[in-house]
């Protein structure tokens, strides 16, 4: 089972691309280390207060895969500098 999440976020306090990338890099690196998921910035690379992050995991059963993605999404929500606005899940 493969589950992917496309997560749109706002980073309100970022005043430059450098500040945005610092926040995004920290979130993505920690998410990869803690949840063993693939993470990438998918869209809005040149906007300094908006981003779309892709998160993908694979596993042998639906419950464990969905649990990992939900934990990763909750992890994104735990950062006060990021607001998750829209999330799209897709099974493959």
TrEMBL record:
<protein>
    <submittedName>
        <fullName>DUF503 domain-containing protein</fullName>
    </submittedName>
</protein>
<dbReference type="InterPro" id="IPR007546">
    <property type="entry name" value="DUF503"/>
</dbReference>
<dbReference type="InterPro" id="IPR036746">
    <property type="entry name" value="TT1725-like_sf"/>
</dbReference>
<dbReference type="Pfam" id="PF04456">
    <property type="entry name" value="DUF503"/>
</dbReference>
